[in-house]
Design goal:
- The protein is about 80% helix and about 0% strand.
- The protein is rod-shaped and about 90 Å long.
- The mean pLDDT is about 80.
- It has about 100 residues and is an all-alpha fold.
Length: about 100
Amino acid sequence: MNEVVTIVVNNLLEIVFAVLGASFTALVIPWLRDTGLPWLKEKRLYSIVKKFVEAAEKQAEAGTIDKATKKHFVVELLEQTALLLPRRSTPLLRRR
């Protein structure tokens, strides 16, 4: 009798873990694709824009470009690197 109970309990635990693993995968993978990846792309874009803004500020301090054209300089850099500038990223340029 004990052997049967042991086999049944082992099989039930395997089924429970398989269902938990499948449901975890079914929930986490779509969440990561919908939430995590755009967040990472946005963070990468933010860091690139930040570097370009810092470069424009250094250019303006050195006198290479006019201080009034810093935003235009950053937009040109983004266009040269073939990065699309989302609408929500333009406040990053207005802040400086």
